[in-house]
Amino acid sequence: IEIFHAIRTTGSVSRAARLLNISQSAVSKTLGHAELQLGFKLFERVKGRLKLTPEAQSLAPEIEKMMHQLDHIRSLAANIHQHPAGSLKIGCLPSLGLHLIPQAVSLIRQRYPDINIEITTGHEMELVRKLRSREINIAFTFKPDDYPDCSNISIAKVNMVLAGPQRGLAANTHEIDFRKLITYSAGDPVTRIIESLAIPHQFTDQIKVETYYVAAALAEYEDRLAIVDEFTAKFVLRDKTRYAYLDPPVTLDLVAIYREQGPPSTLEKQFIGGVRRLARQEHANPGRNKALTNP
Q: How many CB atoms lie within 10 A of CB 241?
């Protein structure tokens, strides 16, 4: 259709090729294939220019309508790219819903104030279940397990911190009293961090929780310690002396998970980009708290 329109407008195969920014042979080949399928010639040469044959003149009004529709589609596509409409259906860990995701929502709504946003919080397995049932389109979580029907995009490294009363903060990780450490379920990524730092028999599992923000709050009120992400610590622990960064740094990978059959839309990619910028800003500026150092 575009080649037909270009030849009709320019009167030449070579000029049509330049107009469409394709090769002359591509124009000739496509035109010949169309004429072969139709069973008649579309153009004839008259005084050095290609003119419509009588048969093609009968098609011309309908082709012009289709060209207008194509122009409309191009304009609509460009508008969607510049001003994506619709909605965001997002899932995240409860800790990410305290600080990081709300900031990212604020950023995207400054640019697109008319979009609809739905936010769901839950643990990793629950978020994956909602992805599969299409209740959400993106899930933000830490270092997920492998799911054959899902893919993920790396966002940033997130610092982990030790939260608790100031007197409980050890000079190095070998001096942490793991008997006071609040623990999580076996599948939690922080559990793997704790196991890598501590001798297994040091655990008491006297207090076990499901969310990082509950662990941080308990560490403050129960004379306990908790390893939590920096977003949780900054939001829950208003007293910044109540947590310290580990040195050498201990981090978790923050990722965005999506269905293999449903890759992120333009709007979702922009939201993911906003989360990435915010998370990397936090990682680059971990704060002024004294770090826990190894000897």
A: 11
The mean pLDDT value for 105-115 works out to: 90
How do strand 251-259 and strand 138-142 relate by DSSP bridges? antiparallel
Strands (E), the chain: 43-46, 49-52, 87-92, 116-121, 138-142, 150-163, 226-229, 243-247, 251-259, 292-293
Which residues are within 8 A (CB) of 43 and not within 5 positions of it... i.e. 6 or more apart? 7, 8, 31, 50, 51, 52, 53, 56
Identify whether 113 is preceded by a cis peptide bond (ω within 30 of 0). Answer: no
- Quick check: 256 and 140 in contact, CB under 8 A? yes
3-state secondary structure of 113: coil
The mean of the pLDDT values for the chain is 82
| Token pair of 243 as six digits | 């947590």
Token pair listed for 169: 């903060």
Residue 288 pLDDT exceeds 50: no
**Per the confidence metrics, is the pTM higher than 0.70?**
no
